[in-house]
Design brief:
There is one protein chain. The protein is mainly α. Helices cover about 80% and strands about 0% of the residues. The chain is built from five helices and no strands.
Length: about 120
């Protein structure tokens, strides 16, 4: 059994991306992360505009501290925008989908002894 697990793990590492690309749910989640609409561009433009405004208007006298504070604020705003985008596309996490696909492939391998799309 240990040898079968090792064979499967080697095959999985070599073919993981190909197998995942063939999975419909994985493909849908990956596509949802792409910027397709004006709202997506707006969500990712907001942090840039926020950073520019912060650099110009923060009441900090030291230039370096003002830049550091602006960068920190920009990162926080970016994280909030990513969170908002994730709420607009409610999918399972990619790691869960990968684990399910791997589990299905492993079960098929243990049942049939075949890896991937080998002829049965």
């Amino acid at each position: 059994m240990d040898e079968k697990n090792e064979v499967f793990e080697n095959w999985w590492q070599a073919n993981k991306q190909k197998v995942l690309d063939e999975d419909r749910e994985y493909h849908e989640v990956v596509e949802s992360y792409k910027m397709k609409s004006g709202a997506d561009w707006l969500l990712f433009g907001i942090p840039v505009v926020t950073g520019i405004i912060c650099v110009q208007n923060l009441p900090i006298q030291h230039e370096i501290l003002r830049w550091v504070a602006s960068i920190a604020i920009t990162i926080v705003v970016f994280a909030i925008c990513v969170f908002v985008k994730s709420l607009s596309h409610p999918h399972r996490p990619i790691s869960d989908i990968e684990a399910d696909v791997k589990k299905r492939c492993m079960e098929k391998f243990l049942r049939t002894g075949k890896l991937g799309n080998q002829e049965e």
